[in-house]
Every structure is written in C-alpha cells, then in structure tokens.
Amino acid sequence: MPEELIGLIPAAGKGIRLGLPYPKELYPIIQNNHYKPISQFVVENLTASGAEHIVFVINETKHQLIGFFGNGYRFGCNISYVVQEQRGDSNVSTSPGLSHALDSAYHLVKGKTVLFGMADTIMEPKDVFRHLLDAARPEDRVILGLFPVTRPEKFGMVDFDQEGVVRQIIDKPAQTSLQYAWGCIAWLPEFTEHLHGCVDRQHISDFALIMNNAIEQGTPFRAVILPGGTYSDLGTYEEIAELDQKLRA
Q: Which of 122, 93, 230, 249 is nearest to 101 (CA)?
C-alpha cells in the first residue's frame, strides 16, 4: 500500500445515549494517575503506525474536541477537522451516519491510503494499523483488522476463508457462528472512490452494504486477526463499567 497514509476518525455523533455534558470522545480514561480521553487512544494507534496526518469528522458542536487536540502538534501529527453536513436521506441503516461521515472527508483522503478507526475504542496492539499494512498483499484493496468478540449482535462480523479472503460482512447478527468482528480498516484509493460513489451518487448509507457491494464487484478484501488483539468500545453505561473494571484490573 504505497500511497500516503492518512488517518480517518469519525466523531460526528451526538452521543445521546450517554447524555454526557461533553463530547463522548473526551470521556476520561485514568491510567497511572494521568488523564487520557478515549479518542486519544486511536490517535496514538494511528501515529504509532506511521500516519502523520489525521482527519477528525465532527459535528458543529464539537468545540471541546478541537480544543483538546488542536492542530495535532502535541500528539506528533497534523490534525484536520471536517464538519459532517446534515443529510436528508431516508435510507434505513444499521450504522446510521457512518458512511456519510467517512465520505465527508473525501476531499482530504482521496488518492491516499486511509487508516480508519473509531473515536470511542481502545485497541491493542498499539501499532494495530501497521500490522494491517504489513499483512497486505499486492492485490489487496481493503484490509480489515479483526478482533474476537462475545457479543456479535453489536458488531460487523466477518466471514473469511483460510487464506484470509473476506467473503461477506454480516452486520450485527442476532445469531451467528462467526467469532471475529472488524474493528479498524485500511484501504486504498479505489475503495475511497467506491464509498464516494455509493454515498454521493447512489445514496447508500449502510456501510456494511457498501463493503459487501465492493466484495461482490470483485474488490479484494483481506481479514487480518491481530496477534493478542483486544478491542473495547464505549457506547453504553454497561460498556463504560466493563471498560473501567478492565482498566482497573
């Protein structure tokens, strides 16, 4: 994947479920008597993997997020911000807003290798994206970083063969025998163009559908199981309690 690396972090959600008085992405994680907002973890994942430019996709209320990260100097990178415009599309999506958020940064990420991670997650190993890039084969266009999960109904589960070739993404299944979910992604410019076409021209808003359409059209997707990989996300109070308990342990 020879193109310039650029990190892409969607952070445009309203965080209504948690009802916090500040952006969910600034939820405080305390380790070794130091404060770190949860979104700093994915920033460090990106910089540890070689990304020197990171794009946050935000909504018009995320001033505190901008105030904390600034231009990225303190974090060893350059940070840009894109405001996701409100869309009137009526399509039902199992991942509402995600595809639009990613495509909002099209003018900054086109022509580059995109490293995409979520702002409310903690992933190990730290250089998780470097593992994806190192596993890429010449024919690959999209690399999915996989993590074992115990609640498949919350994640995008990945069906892949013994060679790591992805056959299908099954989003938030009520029941499945699949054990691994994608937690982060690296992709080449071809997929950026596919995503842009789906969102901007075809008005498709379901990210899993967009990926499955690309697979059906012959775009090579590869699944990479991260060695010793762990994945924690912050979406509900139950998950916050679980994360806090895990960090204390």
A: 93
